[in-house]
């Protein structure tokens, strides 16, 4: 039995190592070659920060990067607000008429191909004679990411003890104040997690943005895609490395914030 367990453990560890290598080895190679001094991506020419300097001197890339960050921040904030309201409606309104239809329409972007979503949004903006640019991309990304926020927040609301909110109302709070003082602090981590998920999805999107963007409002993924068609430049490796570092910092900060919140909750529990 001991030998069997040992063999299974080694097999599992080997499978895990191969899986992680398959997922992260290309990213490691990209990060290493972002410090390559050679102009050719496949030829190593020594360590250098040349391509990071090139990126900060490339006005078109900088504009695209700022556009992506602005669109991601605004759309993630709007998605977090609308998704939270939708989650509250679904979690607390079990019996309202049209709940099944509302839920199906809300979750449809989760399973609908992005090409169909992007084309339908493009037709909508054309019918409304809306000028395609920053706000059309932001609205499209909000539509895409709101359902993800709803799923995260609704799952948190489903496990909360509603008797705490009812006790607050028994002590004199109106429903809105009871929600703000009792329920909202408990679902803030879920809202933050939903915001981060929406931010990453917006930052990563190419398909929907390609349908809804306009002249002078290209996001960074679209700009990179147009550059890659002419050949991969080391500058693109530097850009991707900086965004990987940004996302890693956000994840680490969120992890520490979550641990700090849990530690405060445990320390306050005996009181």
Percent in strands: under 5%
- Summed over residues and divided by their number, the pLDDT gives a mean of 82
Low-confidence stretches: 266-271
CATH topology: MetI-like fold
The CATH class turns out to be Mainly Alpha
Distance between the termini: 48 Å
| Domain tally | 1
Number-wise, the strands total 0
Helicity range of the residues? Answer: over 70%
- Rg over CA atoms, rounded to whole Å, is 23 Å
Subcellular location: Cell membrane
Family: Belongs to the binding-protein-dependent transport system permease family. CysTW subfamily.
Main location: membrane
Transmembrane segments: 12-35, 64-88, 100-128, 134-157, 178-201, 236-257
Q: What would you note in describing this structure?
A:
Helix 1 (2-33) crosses helix 11 and helix 6 (134-158) crosses helix 8 (175-204). The protein has 271 residues and is mostly helical. It is built from eleven helices and no strands. The protein is globular, with a radius of gyration of 23 Å. Residues 266-271 have low confidence and may be disordered. This is Inner membrane ABC transporter permease protein YdcV. Residues 65-257 form the ABC transmembrane type-1 domain. It is found in: Cell membrane. Its main location: membrane.
Task: Summarize the SSE layout with pairings.
Layout: H1 2-33, H2 50-56, H3 59-92, H4 99-111, H5 114-127, H6 134-158, H7 162-170, H8 175-204, H9 207-212, H10 220-228, H11 234-268
Helix pairs in contact: 1-11, 2-11, 3-6, 3-8, 3-10, 4-6, 6-8, 7-8, 8-11
Pfam families: BPD_transp_1
Keywords: Cell membrane, Membrane, Transmembrane, Transmembrane helix, Transport
Organism: Bradyrhizobium ivorense
